[in-house]
Amino acid sequence: MKNSVFIFFLFLALVLYGQEKEKSKLDLYSNLFSASLNYTTQLSEKWSLQQKIAISNPFDVNEFEVTPLTFTYHIDKKWSVFGGPKVRYNFVKDDFYLGTQSQFSALWHAGARYDFNNNFFGEFLVEKPFFKKNFSQHNNQQNFQFSNTPIRLKMGIRF
Question: Nearest-5° angle of CA 30, CA 36, CA 42?
Fold first, then answer.
């Protein structure tokens, strides 16, 4: 089982990396390097409430994400659905050509999670921003365009 999960993760990582190319039509977002702290409060047998802080580094953009309230409904031991508000801050690393650029956004997210076992899980996530604000300090005329895709696929390991 562990080998098949690992192979699936590698396949998914390669597909998501391939979507970074400009000619891709799927417009998926790869977030291969991410760490998060989660706190879950069990409300009942089927419902839970989760708070999360996540930091990630998808290639040349850093991302800081705070999820204050995520309501989760546990369908069974493997499947659950979730949703709630989220706040995200993206920023480009200091670059001679791009300068310093960042984006603050507030959004709604909803998705489904499948737990392979106690340690491995996969998520399908849909996001809809309701507020965006861009900040930039240019060194020249180039402008970095933030592209927050509305669909994310995630694989994770719990420690």
Answer: 120
pTM: 0.68
CATH of domain 33-157: 2.40.160
Q: Is 77 exposed, middle or buried (0-12, 13-18, 19+ CB in 10 A)?
A: exposed
Beta bridge partners of 156: 121
**How far is it, in rounded angstroms, from Cα 25 to Cα 142?**
24
* Per-residue pLDDT tens digits for 112-143: 999 988 888 888 888 888 888 777 666 554 55
Cα-based distances in Å from 89 to 106, 110, 139, 148: 9, 19, 21, 11
b/e map 79-90, b = 16+ CB within 10 Å:
ebebbbebebeb
Residues 6+ apart with CB under 8 A from 9: 155
The predicted-structure confidence for 3-34, as pLDDT tens digits, reads as follows 665 666 555 555 554 444 444 444 444 455 67
Q: What is the DSSP letter of 99?
A: B
Question: What are the residue ranges spanned by the domains of the chain?
Answer: 33-157
